[in-house]
Write a structure and sequence with these properties.
Number of domains: 1
Radius of gyration: 17 Å
Strand content: 5-15%
Structural class: alpha/beta
Bound molecules: thymidine-5'-diphosphate
Order of helices and strands: EHEHHEHHEHHEH
Low-confidence stretches: none
Largest sheet: 5 strands, parallel
CATH class: Alpha Beta
Distance between the termini: 24 Å
Length: 206
C-alpha cells in the first residue's frame, strides 16, 4: 500500500469544491497531517491553455480538448501528486480524472475509454462527489458568484455531466448532497474521510 492518501473532490460547477477543499485541509492539518491542496486544471502550461478555452471552446475538437486535459493531468501526477504521496502526505485535489470522464464524456468522448487512458494516474483512496442539480448549479454560478456561464458550464451540458457523474460506480466514490449548508456538507465530508483514515490504520481525531 502506498504511504500517502489521495482524496479527489468532484462534481459539476458550483457545488462548492473550492470551499470544501480548504476546510478539510485545515481540519486534517489540525490533526497533524502533512496536507497538499491542489487543483485541476493546474496553473502549468497546459492548464493555462485550457483556461484560455473557457470562452472559445469551439476552437478545438472534443478529442483535442481531451488530450489537453490528459497532458495537464500527467504533469500534475508526475510533479505534484506522486511525489506528495511518496513522502506520505494527504493530497486533496479539486478535480481529477472523473471530471474528464464526465465533462469530455458529455462532449462526445467515450467515458470508459477515458478511464482506460488513466493507467498512469494513482487511483484515489476516496472521491468526494458533491451532487447538485444542474439548475441549482447555474443559479449559484450566476446569482451567487455574479458570473456568466462559460462554455463548460451551459445548463444543458451540465445536465449531461451530472448524469455521467451519477453513472460512475467506482467503490472509492462517496456521494454528498451539496445543496445543504457549508458546515453540514463539511461534516459529512469529515465523516467519510474519517472512515477511510481508520480503514488505513490512521488517526482521525486529535
Ligand atoms: P473548475 O474547477 O471550474 O476550475 P477553476 O474554477 O479553477 O477555473 O474547472 C474548470 C472547468 O474545466 C470546469 O467547467 C470543468 C472543466 N474540466 C473538464 O472539462 N475536464 C477535466 O478533466 C477537468 C479537470 C475540468
Amino acid at each position: 500500500m502506498r504511504p500517502g492518501m489521495l482524496i479527489a473532490f468532484e462534481g459539476i460547477d458550483g457545488t462548492g469544491k473550492s470551499t470544501q477543499v480548504p476546510l478539510l485541509g485545515g481540519h486534517l492539518r489540525g490533526l497533524g497531517y502533512d496536507v497538499v491542496e491542489t487543483r485541476e486544471p493546474t496553473d502549468g502550461p497546459h492548464g493555462r491553455r485550457i483556461r484560455e478555452l473557457y470562452r472559445h471552446r469551439n476552437q478545438v475538437t472534443p478529442a483535442e480538448e481531451l488530450e489537453l486535459f490528459l497532458l495537464d493531468r500527467r504533469q500534475h501526477v508526475d510533479e505534484c501528486i506522486q511525489p506528495a504521496l511518496e513522502r506520505g502526505a494527504i493530497v486533496l485535489t479539486d478535480r481529477y480524472y472523473f471530471s474528464t470522464a464526465a465533462y469530455q464524456g458529455a462532449a462526445g468522448c467515450d467515458p470508459a475509454a477515458i478511464f482506460a487512458r488513466h493507467d498512469f494516474a494513482p487511483e484515489p483512496d476516496l472521491v468526494v462527489l458533491l451532487t447538485l442539480s444542474a439548475a441549482e448549479s447555474v443559479r449559484r454560478i450566476c446569482s451567487l458568484r455574479g458570473e456568466t456561464l462559460n462554455d463548460f458550464e451551459q445548463e444543458e451540458q451540465l445536465e449531461k455531466v451530472a448524469g455521467l457523474f451519477a453513472s460512475f460506480r467506482h467503490n472509492c466514490i462517496v456521494r454528498i448532497h451539496a445543496a445543504l449548508p457549508v458546515a453540514e456538507v463539511h461534516a459529512s465530508i469529515r465523516e467519510a474521510v474519517c472512515r477511510r483514515l481508520v480503514h488505513k490504520g490512521l488517526r482521525c481525531s486529535g
